[in-house]
Structure formats: C-alpha cells, structure tokens
Structure prediction request, 111 residues.
Amino acid sequence: MKDRVKKYLTDILIAITRIESFVADTNGFEKYQADIKTKSAVERQLAIIGEAMNKVRKEDTEIAIKNAMQIVGLRNRLIHSYDSTEDTVVWAIIVKHIPNLKREIEQLLSK
Prediction:
C-alpha cells in the first residue's frame, strides 16, 4: 500500500475518533441536535472523511471500501448543499455506519 494511501486512511481513522469523542457526551440525538458546536464539528470531520476517501479511490483503485461512493457523496452534500443536510441523516450515519467504517479502515491499515 502506498504511503499516501496510508496517510489518507489514517486521516479517516482520526476523523472517526474525533466524531466518537464529540458525540460521547451528547447522550442521544436530541442533545446532539441542540448542540450546534458538536454538529458543526461532526460535519467537518465527515467532510474530511469524504475528501480522504475520494483521494484513496483516486490513488489506489484496488482498495475496496464499502460505501466509498456514498461517503464521497455525503462530503459533496455537506460542502455544496449544506442547507439541505438533515440532522437525522447525520445521526444515523454516526450510529449505524461510522463503527463499520472504523473497523474496515483499521483492517486495511493493519495489513
């Protein structure tokens, strides 16, 4: 695996860790939704994940990451259609998809 790809995968893992720490104290969706700083921080990290994923895809087409296109699509939506981003969608991503992505990235980095 190229060093640049490892760097991007590490950036994704760091962003995931930050998201986990940001939402650890929210105690659920309602508090997340009410905390503009946490929402902004999480959305920033999701944008970083999407940008890093895009760079991984361009750098090494052999690396298969589940939902890579959707991750890049989320980044584009956060950046270009920020006004249509729904808190419920972001929360669902945090709860349902981030843990799986974390495991997948950790596996790739352990090779």
Summary: The radius of gyration is 14 Å. Helices lie at 3-23, 29-34, 36-59, 68-80, 87-109. The chain has a mean pLDDT of 95.
